[in-house]
Known about the structure:
By secondary structure, the chain is of the alpha+beta class. It has helices at 15-26, 42-53, and strands at 3-8, 32-37, 56-63, 66-72. The chain has one domain (3-72): 2-Layer Sandwich (Translation Initiation Factor IF3), CATH 3.30.110.40.
Amino acid sequence: MSQHTLDARNSLCPMPVIKTQNKVNELQAGDILKVTCTDPGALNDIPAWCRINGHLIKDSYEENNEVVIIIQVAG
């Protein structure tokens, strides 16, 4: 299991979800991806995309006007 980061700051919907999808496609099952966004809609959009695709949200929170979402990639 590897840890990865994705900087999706200054991207508006739907780009944070698209960038997340593209990055997840590069990763292995069990990998952890930390996504950082400035679009507040990503706090709902990325977890919804993860549910549809079977990925696990380990954590999600807002910090310093940024949204942070921790994803575990499904197998």
